[in-house]
């Protein structure tokens, strides 16, 4: 009948089972989904992150002069769901362990991560193209005998043209050896 006294005494001896947060910094789990961050060097502007964002916190807008695009991530509307990181094909989006998202209402417009990602100029025709990260180009052209670093700096049409010219050269080389 008095079994609860044994449990109560045991709990008093053990102490609190929660983190003593105000007195000690809280421990953050290793895979905690905190603030979202974007690496502009890896972004190709595919906008998949914007489409899957549950909180509509990601905005991507091309500049009118065609020089590139602006990326904005509003931390105060982010749901911390991690879909943007999961679906990003280049790994440009990551999530930190920073869970300190509380801020005064007066600072809500400052809780935005903004980046400008410039377009590159095609080495073949000069057209504006989206940047292609080296790691992604390495995966795409891993099985081909091509210079991936050179192809990264070409627009799709110039890539096709160069690929076709190489095939013609290879075919002509095969005919001369036969």
Descriptive tags:
6 helices; 2 domains; 178 residues; Alpha-Beta Plaits; alpha+beta; three-stranded antiparallel sheet; 31% helix; two-stranded antiparallel sheet
What does this structure look like?
With 178 residues, the protein is α+β, with helices and mostly antiparallel strands. The chain folds into two domains: 31-118, 2-Layer Sandwich (Alpha-Beta Plaits), CATH 3.30.70; 119-170, no CATH class. 31% of the residues lie in helices and 16% in strands. It is built from six helices and seven strands; from the N terminus they run αβαββαββββααα. The strands form three sheets. Strands 2-3-5 form a three-stranded antiparallel sheet, with no helix packed on it. The chain has a two-stranded antiparallel sheet with strand order 1-4. Strands 6-7 form a two-stranded antiparallel ribbon. It is elongated.
The total of helices stands at 6
Q: Describe the strand arrangement of the main beta sheet, using strand numbers.
A: 2-3-5
End-to-end Cα distance:
99 Å
Please give the domain count: 2
How many strands, which pairing sense, and closed or not: the largest β-sheet?
3 strands, antiparallel
Element-by-element helix/strand order:
HEHEEHEEEEHHH
| Helix/strand class | alpha+beta
Q: What percent of residues adopt helix (DSSP H or I)?
A: 25-40%
